[in-house]
Amino acid sequence: MKRAAAWSILLLGGIYFILPLAGMVEFSLSMKRGVYSLEAYRVVLADPQFRQTFTYSVVMSLLTILFGVLLVVPTAFWVRLKMPWARPYVEFLTLMPLVIPAIVTVFGYIRLYNTSSWLPLTGTLMGSNFLLLMGYAMLSLPYMYRAVDTGLRTIDVATLTEAAQSLGAGWTTILARIILPNVLVAVLSGAFVTFAIVMGEFTMAALLNRPAFGPYLQLMGANKAYEPFALSTIAFAITWACMGLIQLVTRFSKHTKAAQG
Amino acid sequence: MTWIGLLPFAAFIVLFLIAPTMKIVVGAFQTPQGDFTLNNLRGLFTDSILSSYWISIKISVASSALGCLVGFLMAAAMILGGVPKGVRSPLMTFSGVASNFAGVPLAFAFLATLGPLGLVTLILKTHFGINLRAMGFNILSFWGLTITYLFFQIPLMILIITPAIDGLKREWREAASVLGATGPQYWRMVALPILFPSILGTFALLFANAFGAVATAIALTGSSLNIVPIMLFAQIRGDVLGDPHLGYAMAFGMILVTAVANVLYIWLRIRAERWLK
């Protein structure tokens, strides 16, 4: 009786989650009347605008990940090593992007860094790209910081640092050759979440007028019948791949640790 | 000199989070000439803006309440329902994916399902003779948006509440049944009171999550449903309110609502963690 109830809850839930995905895939395959075909995907992949926006978003994700790693790893390391009292405050700050909606942050960017301000970033293409990069880094900060900080908890930061210092290593060497390799799995899982977030992001890119994948998707949705569903399926596959990769690297790291210990 | 290590992080936070937010907050209390005023906030109390806040809050409450309920039931069924252990890992992975699958693609998934030509709409019509449209259902509406938001709300609830349910100790249940408690009594008088802060806290988090969701709403409804994020988006794009400082006030209202929800979440979470050691 209890088991039957549990199964029916999970089954109903499963149906709710599968139907929209099925609907989306079904639509994406029905561009040709009467038969299932990959026509919509062919059209989408041949669209130069798709290639441009997709490449733009991939490059932006990689830059966001790079910036995030360069910012978060030294900060989390430093806080753990030298300023443990500051940890709750830093952690609180890294959670703020979840509190302040992205649309408000980007509204602030547009007003604060407009052409008549002290730092006219929105006036140039490079400036807008830079602002968007900062916005993306802000969106991924809660996930990146949490991942790296958890990774640092599993290693003895102080001993490793002292050992490296006594062998004559400077801060850059310690970070790049001691700390980073030890938290690589954590950094990777943060990186995959970041990738998934940036690839699907719409609000910031749209309001800063940058040609990213999210705004392109919305534009297609307003103008085309089948292509948006093919694009959405691709977006879903990317999210799925990112989450799968996180599982994979975590599982992989567990095995290596078990082998050592 | 230890603070020097925090300088890059501090600069990043100040320049790209705190300063932009303060610009909005201060702007909400200023006239275009820079003098202090409460008129912008007063300007929010017009019918169209108030109703947009009201619809936004209704959708957020409905989607987070339903998300909490369904997510809780699914997590409880997964952990306590006696289903095989093999169900757990795929469900958790899927929850991770689905809670990140928001935005524009999610809107299209639901258009393809419950839209006028959607999969479910057509199946119900041809096989069961149920015409959703004639029954007054429209994906571009309060319920349409709520059902769509549930796609990321339920998995988020599952992800957050699972550790809490895992933390329910076997001994509590045994102690209760030794004292003669039935199953429902155990849930009503032991388990649910312990889980209550977690559930309510997650509710607050889901609320903030739905309230700030822009992309899904825009892709789904265009501008046919006046909710706060859509109005603010239009305002930033083209000053549709005809008053930039009224836009600041609107954004300030949004920060206020999500901040209250998040403070509630953090406070309840601290309370909940007392039991989960």
Q: TL;DR of this structure?
A:
By secondary structure, chain A is mainly α. Chain A has twelve helices and no strands. Chain A starts with a helix and ends with a helix.
Summarize the topology.
The complex is a heterodimer of chains A (261) and B (277).
Chain A: H1 2-29, H2 39-46, H3 48-81, H4 87-99, H5 102-112, H6 125-153, H7 157-166, H8 171-182, H9 184-200, H10 203-207, H11 213-223, H12 227-260
Chain B: H1 7-28, H2 39-43, H3 47-80, H4 88-100, H5 103-114, H6 119-128, H7 142-166, H8 170-178, H9 183-211, H10 215-221, H11 228-238, H12 244-273
Helix pairs in contact in B: 1-12, 3-7, 3-9, 4-7, 5-10, 7-9, 8-9, 9-12, 11-12
Order of helices and strands of chain B: HHHHHHHHHHHH
β-strand amount of chain B: under 5%
The span between the termini of chain A is: 44 Å
Report low-confidence residues of chain B grouped into runs of 5 or more: none
Overall geometric form of chain A? globular
Name the average pLDDT of chain A.
89
Task: Report the CATH superfamily of chain B.
Answer: MetI-like
Number of H/I helices of chain B: 12
What is the CA-atom radius of gyration of chain B, in angstroms? 23 Å
> Quick one: CATH class of chain B?
Mainly Alpha
CATH superfamily of chain A: MetI-like
N- to C-terminal distance of chain B: 37 Å
Mean pLDDT rating of chain B: 86
Protein name (chain B): Putative spermidine/putrescine transport system permease protein
Membrane topology (chain B): Multi-pass membrane protein
Subcellular location (chain B): Cell membrane
Pfam families (chain B): BPD_transp_1
